[in-house]
Amino acid sequence: MNQLKCYNVNYIEKGTFSLNGKGNNPLWDSAEILTDFVSAWDKEKIATIEFKSMWDFENIYFCFTVYDAMVYIDKKDDSSDSINNSDRVELFFRKDELLNPYYCLEIDPTSRIMDFMALPNKDFDFEWKWPKEQLKVQSTIDSSKFTVEISISIQSLKELDLIKDNKIETGIFRAKYKKQQDLSYEPVWISWVNPNTESPNFHTPSSFGVLQLLRP
Fold first, then answer.
1. pLDDT tens, 204-214?
2. DSSP the chain
3. Sign of torsion over alpha carbons 3, 9, 10, 12
4. What does residue 144 show for φ and ψ, rounded to 5 degrees?
5. Is the pTM of this model over 0.85?
6. Residue-wise pLDDT tens digits, 13-33
């Protein structure tokens, strides 16, 4: 396997952090800021995305701050189809490069969650859900950006066999829906790791990097 891109997840003291969906807790200042995102299949410059993560032995926390004044949310209902047609951020977790299985979280700016298990070749199981009470999300939207904070229990990641040597193989993504001349919306696909595929595809081994959990 080729060397994967790595992001260091800094440690914080247990019980010191709670979600508010705003990304403004001072503890986030201790996290590394990742802005290294690319839109591999679209030539336009992408707006800034800031990703942060930290952990405390009980949970791992994520924060996406997406600088975008033109957020699109499909509000027809709360189905997976509706979330799938909205601006969102995404985290994929895998055991290894075989992707058999891997687990996907896709979250829109209003905290709606589309979680599912997947097998190779985009074989998706939407009946599967992240273990209850092991996943929490809060978000906010303002005139210039939206923020999504996520908490996932370390226990659930271990039960899914997703942590090895304090490493979590992870895909970090964003879907941006742009209004077209015919008033329809089409997605721009943005990722931390360039999958180097001819057409947009996050569901491929080459789209993953590694989160390295740093210990105190």
1. 999 999 999 99
2. -PPPPEEEEEE--TTS----SSS--GGGGGSPPB---B-TT--SPPPPEEEEEEE-SSEEEEEEEEE-S------S-SSHHHHHTS-EEEEEEESSTT-SSEEEEEE-TT--EEEEEEETTTEEETT--PPTTSEEEEEEE-SSEEEEEEEEEHHHHHHTT--BTTEEEEEEEEEEEEE-TTS-EEEEEEESS----SS--SSSGGG-EEEEE---
3. negative
4. -120, -10
5. yes
6. 999 999 999 999 999 999 999
User: Cis ω on the peptide bond leading into residue 101 (within 30° of 0)?
Assistant: yes
> How much is the pLDDT for 3?
86
| Ramachandran class of 83: left when φ > 0, alpha when ψ lies in -120 to 50, beta otherwise | alpha
Task: Give residue for tokens 């975008």.
Answer: 68
Of 150, 195, 148, 188, which Cα lies nearest the Cα of 171? 195
Q: Are 67 and 144 in contact (CB under 8 A)?
A: yes
